[in-house]
Amino acid sequence: MKITYITHASLLIELDNFKILTDPWLIGPSWGGSLWHFPTHNFTPKNLPVPDIIYFSHGHDDHFHEETIKQFPKSWFKKLVVVPNYKEKWWKDSINSKFKNVKYLNHNEIYNVKKDLSLQIFLNDKGDIDSSLKVKYQNKSCFLQTDNLLSLREASRISKLGKIDIAFMMPYLTGIFPAFYKMKRHEMIKLGKKKKNNSLEYSYNLIKNLKPKYLVPYACDIASLGKNFYANFIHNNNKKDFQRFIIKKKLGTQSIILNPGNYIYFKKNGNIKKKISKYKFSLKEFKKFKYKNSKPFSSYQKKEMQLENLEKKPVINSFINTLKKELKKIKNYNFSVLFLIKFKNDKKTSFLINFKKRKIIQDIPEKKLVIPKLIIFTEFYKIANLVKKKYPMNFMTFHNGAIMCQRNSKDLSDNEKRFWSWIYNFSF
């Protein structure tokens, strides 16, 4: 069993002559241009070997990446695609529109690919649309967490199903908070550290329950560019910090940091061979990353902003009409959200969603505006791309830096949770 780290959550697992490729996001950014690969890599579908199986863990853009899939060689589309059997129609529509040879696996289901090779899927036990995968070949097994924030109880149950030789674990949470909420800088830094420590503690407890022999942090090699560059130092994904944390906890698990192109090879005699390069995470490296990606970032921004010159009113009305339609389907509750949408000429338009009255009111004069529970700032071209169906994840695409938010409380209320769940789960 040879496992090569490609980038983020993408691995090439070679089992003698059989190859499995996981979550291939290889080309350009994800999340509407918000997230880029750091460290950078040189892999593309064209310079990777043809996989026998392609595994997609879930539908987020950094795991099921449309731009990468478009660049798959023709031969790849004939290969077996293994995916979790989520009940959501959008998931099966996305998979079936691209691939013909698909194997859907239910929670806990074991798929015997061939003699001595099996795959087992674990769906998130808290209701999220996410999954983990266990690959077992001969007497070795590999566990891939992906972004599956499973419960500690579930991790303990999985460990009892058989030993795990190596686990690829996500040590850090991404998302909108706190870097994309307006607050004083020292508060943002403090809350960023708190989020990081909570992530590390959760990951440590998962590992303690899973009991793998080796551990590799992954699914966190991402960074922000442009005006969001500062977020790299708030949502700090330094894998060395994770390794130090695990060592300090004195677990029996050995942690290994892999860069793109590094690999771990399990020999038949039980020994392992490793190719490991130095992992660099510093301000100097981020400056190099920023310089190296300045042209690709600028090019992507220009592509995004092509829709800036669309007629404003029809785009905004289309966005609001979708919100109105979905607003009718939910029960009213005491929460309000103000959208402030900025145009290229610095002019703005606004509208308020009142969930208590289930109404949307446009362009309320400031004097008459009751302070909302949440304010969302974004740019017109982002809304235009959303309305024109450029974002497969719909409004979820905005979750990693395409919006800025403001609220009075530092804590996430249950009502705000309801709002995010609502707007992330319907189509524009």
Task: Report on the architecture of this protein.
The chain has 428 residues and is an alpha/beta fold. The chain is built from 10 helices and 22 strands. Strand 11, helix 3 and strand 12 form a beta-alpha-beta unit.
Distance between the termini: 44 Å
SSE class: alpha/beta
Number of DSSP E strands:
22
Report the mean per-residue pLDDT as an integer.
Answer: 95
**Sheet with the most strands?**
8 strands, mixed
- As residue ranges, the low-confidence spans are none
Please work out how many helical segments DSSP would assign: 10
Strand content: 15-25%
Helicity level, as a percent range? 25-40%
Which strand order spans the largest sheet, edge to edge or round the barrel?
A: 7-6-5-3-2-1-16-17
Q: What is the approximate shape?
A: globular
- Calculate Rg over CA atoms: 22 Å
List the SSEs and their pairings:
Elements lengths: L1 E6 L2 E6 L2 E5 L13 E2 L15 E3 L10 H5 L9 E5 L4 H8 L5 E4 L4 E5 L2 E7 L7 E7 L2 E5 L7 H8 L6 E4 L15 H26 L3 E4 L4 E2 L15 H10 L5 E2 L7 E4 L5 E4 L7 H10 L1 H11 L7 H16 L8 E7 L5 E7 L4 E4 L11 E6 H8 L16 E3 L7 H11 L4
In short:
With 428 residues, the chain is of the alpha/beta class.
Please describe the structure with a list of short key phrases separated by commas or semicolons.
single chain, 428 residues, alpha/beta, seven-stranded mixed β-sheet, 10 helices, globular
